[in-house]
Design brief:
Elements lengths: L3 H11 L8 E3 L1 H7 L2 E6 L9 H15 L4 E5 L3 H13 L2 E6 L5 H9 L3 E4 L4 H9 L6 E2 L6 H17 L5 E5 L4 H13 L4 E7 L4 H8 L24 H8 L2 E5 L1 H15 L9 H7 L10 E6 L6 H14 L3 E9 L4 H11 L3 E8 L9 E9 L3 H13 L4 E3 L1
Helix pairs in contact: 1-7, 3-4, 3-7, 4-5, 7-8, 8-10, 11-12, 11-13
C-alpha cells in the first residue's frame, strides 16, 4: 500500500543513490505565466530523469529476495537507463527492449550502463509485450504499474514539501501514472490543501480517457515531442491513485510543448525533454487558469532529449513564436532589385538568415524572379511590422 510511512522509508533507502535535486525559483517564467514558479529539476537527476528512483526501489527489493537475479524492462529511454544503472549497482543482469526508432543517444547511454539492448517494434507497448515473453526466466520491471516503483517516485513529493513548505500547487507530467500517483500520494498525505495537477500530451491522453471511463482504457496515440509520456494505457495500480489524489488533469498541444522547451532553454539555460516541459506548456496553453497567482512547482521530469531533435525543436519554436519569419517577394529581374529589398529589411532591423533567388518558379513572367527570405525578428509584432514596411515600399509580401 502507498502509505506515508512506506514513502518515508523508501526515501531513506534512495538517499545514497538518487540525488535530492534542486528546487529553483524562476521569476522570469513566473512573470510570464502569472504565478510564483519554482522548478523541480529532475533533469539533473542521476541518468537525467526521475526514473532512477522507481527503478532502484524495485530492483533493491528483488536483489534482497533473489540475489543475482536477472531483470527485463521495456522503455524508450529513461526507464531503460534507470533500470540499467540500478541493475549494475545491485549486481543484477538487465535486458532492455527498446523501440526500433529510439534515439541513438538514449540507446548508447543504456548500453554504457551495462544492459543488454534488444530492439523491438515501434512503441513501448510492443516492447512491453516482448519483455513479458521472457518472464518468468527474467523478472519484469514495469515502468510505472508497480508498487515499489510508485513508492520510489513518491520520494519526489517529500523533497518538494521539505524545500518549499508553502507550496500551493504542484504540476506533474503524466504518462503511465507512476510519477503523478506517487508524488500526489506523498503530497496529499502531508499537505492535503496543496493542489496537484497532471499534464499529458493531447496526442497521448490515456489518463483523461481512464478518468472518463472509470477504468484503464487503451487509447490511440500519435508521435509526440513528449515521447516519455506517450503511453496508450495508464496502470491498474496508478489510476486509483490519480482518482483519489489528483485534483485536475489537462492536455497540451505540440506547439505549446515546443514553446516550453525553448523557453526553458533560453530563459533558464535548462535542457528539458518534451515530457519534462509539460507543466510549463500547460501554463502557456492557458490550461490551468486556477493556478494563476499561486506558488507553483513545475516538475521537470527529465532532460534526455536527442541533440538533433533539440535543434529542430529550437528552430520550430523560433518559427512558432514569430522570431523566424519566412516570406517571398516577386521582384523585377534587373540589377539592384534584390539590393533594394535587402536594404528595406535591414532598415526594419531584421536580420536575414537565408535567402533563395528563383527565376524559374512556375507561373512567373520572364522578367521577374521570386525571392524567398528567412529573417530573424523580435517576435510576431516585429515580423508584421517588417511585412507592413515592405508593402508600403512596393514589395508585396507572401508569407510562407
Amino acid at each position: 500500500m502507498i502509505f506515508l510511512q512506506n514513502i518515508e522509508k523508501m526515501r531513506r533507502l534512495l538517499g545514497p543513490v538518487a540525488f535530492h535535486t534542486p528546487l529553483a525559483p524562476s521569476p522570469h517564467l513566473g512573470n510570464l505565466v502569472g504565478a510564483e514558479v519554482f522548478l523541480k529539476l529532475e533533469n539533473l537527476q542521476r541518468t537525467g530523469s526521475f526514473k532512477i528512483r522507481g527503478a532502484y526501489a524495485r530492483l533493491h527489493r528483488l536483489a534482497q529476495e533473489r540475489p543475482g537475479a536477472g531483470v527485463v524492462a521495456a522503455s524508450a529511454g529513461n526507464h531503460a537507463q534507470g533500470v540499467a544503472v540500478s541493475a549494475r549497482l545491485l549486481g543484477l543482469k538487465a535486458v532492455i527492449f527498446m523501440p526500433v526508432g529510439v534515439s541513438l543517444s538514449k540507446r548508447e547511454a543504456t548500453v554504457a550502463s551495462g544492459a543488454e539492448i534488444r530492439l523491438k517494434g515501434e512503441s513501448v507497448a510492443e516492447c512491453l509485450e516482448a519483455a513479458r515473453a521472457l518472464t518468468p526466466e527474467l523478472t519484469l520491471i514495469h515502468p510505472y504499474d508497480d508498487e515499489q516503483v510508485i513508492l520510489g517516485q513518491a520520494s519526489l513529493g517529500l523533497e518538494i514539501l521539505e524545500d518549499l513548505p508553502q507550496v500551493q500547487a504542484v504540476v506533474v507530467p503524466v504518462g503511465g501514472g507512476g510519477l503523478i500517483g506517487g508524488v500526489a500520494a506523498a503530497i496529499k498525505a502531508k499537505a492535503p490543501s496543496v493542489r496537484v495537477v497532471g499534464v499529458e500530451p493531447s496526442l497521448a491522453a490515456s489518463a483523461a480517457a481512464a478518468l472518463r471511463e472509470g477504468r484503464p482504457v487503451t487509447v490511440a496515440t500519435e508521435p509526440t515531442l513528449a515521447d516519455g509520456a506517450c503511453i496508450s494505457r495508464v496502470g491498474e495500480l496508478t489510476l486509483p491513485l490519480i482518482q483519489r489524489y489528483v485534483d485536475d488533469m489537462v492536455q497540451v498541444a505540440e506547439e505549446h510543448i515546443a514553446q516550453a522547451m525553448l523557453l526553458l532553454l533560453e530563459r533558464r539555460r535548462i535542457v528539458v525533454e518534451g515530457a519534462g516541459a509539460l507543466g510549463l506548456a500547460a501554463f502557456l496553453a492557458e490550461a490551468v487558469p486556477a493556478l494563476r497567482g499561486k506558488r507553483v512547482v513545475l516538475l521537470i521530469s527529465g532532460g534526455n532529449v536527442d541533440s538533433n531533435l533539440l535543434g529542430r525543436i529550437i528552430d520550430q519554436g523560433l518559427v512558432r513564436s514569430g522570431r523566424i519569419y519566412r516570406f517571398s517577394v516577386v521582384l523585377p529581374d534587373r540589377p539592384g532589385a534584390l539590393a533594394g529589398l535587402l536594404t528595406q529589411v535591414a532598415a526594419a532591423q531584421a536580420n536575414v538568415l537565408h535567402i533563395s533567388h528563383d527565376r524559374l518558379a512556375k507561373g512567373l513572367p520572364p522578367r521577374q524572379s521570386r525571392v524567398s527570405l528567412e529573417i530573424e525578428t523580435r517576435g510576431f509584432a516585429h515580423a508584421q511590422e517588417v511585412a507592413a514596411g515592405l508593402e508600403t515600399k512596393g514589395y508585396p509580401v507572401q508569407p510562407e
